[in-house]
Amino acid sequence: AQSVTQPDIHITVSEGASLELRCNYSYGATPYLFWYVQSPGQGLQLLLKYFSGDTLVQGIKGFEAEFKRSQSSFNLRKPSVHWSDAAEYFCAVGARAAGNKLTFGGGTRVLVKP
Amino acid sequence: SAVISQKPSRDICQRGTSLTIQCQVDSQVTMMFWYRQQPGQSLTLIATANQGSEATYESGFVIDKFPISRPNLTFSTLTVSNMSPEDSSIYLCSVGGQRDSEQYFGPGTRLTVT
Known about the structure:
The structure holds two protein chains of two kinds. Chain A is mostly beta strands.
């Protein structure tokens, strides 16, 4: 079975500072990996995705993520945070062998200080 | 990506009643999914709804409580039956994208049961 862990429940970052959100997954083979963002009262928006190939993935809104097979990680980064980045971020794992269903991590809430 | 709408966006219901949530997509999709997000929690998959077949429910979810219809490739409904306050959650539908496991989410339906 696949599983996802997001070790940080809350992160507070100053506007303009860099941001890194951690994601660790468990799966027997190489999974498909995703990051979603949920702003207050909104649905989930897909930030970026990894299927194969280049392990550094660029997404929308200036986000990037790096897949590290040796560490079973897929951490999300942004070099300079904007106040509008305050939201809940979810890492998810899927696999064709699992019927393409997604398993989500517990989420990390990001607060941005002015 | 597909444009997904859900109705209603929110509702307050009395215990013992049922609510049907609609999910409409602007293009034909094979795979649709229904998730529950309890307050302050991550997303949990309720069921996968593929057109032309019965919905497949995840462990802990049963058809009598969460009946699902999928009459065509652009529409699905989820009914929350005989509601109790524990059913108070955000219910989200998602659709499969062009790549395996890729999913796009609707805006969600916020349900409060009193």
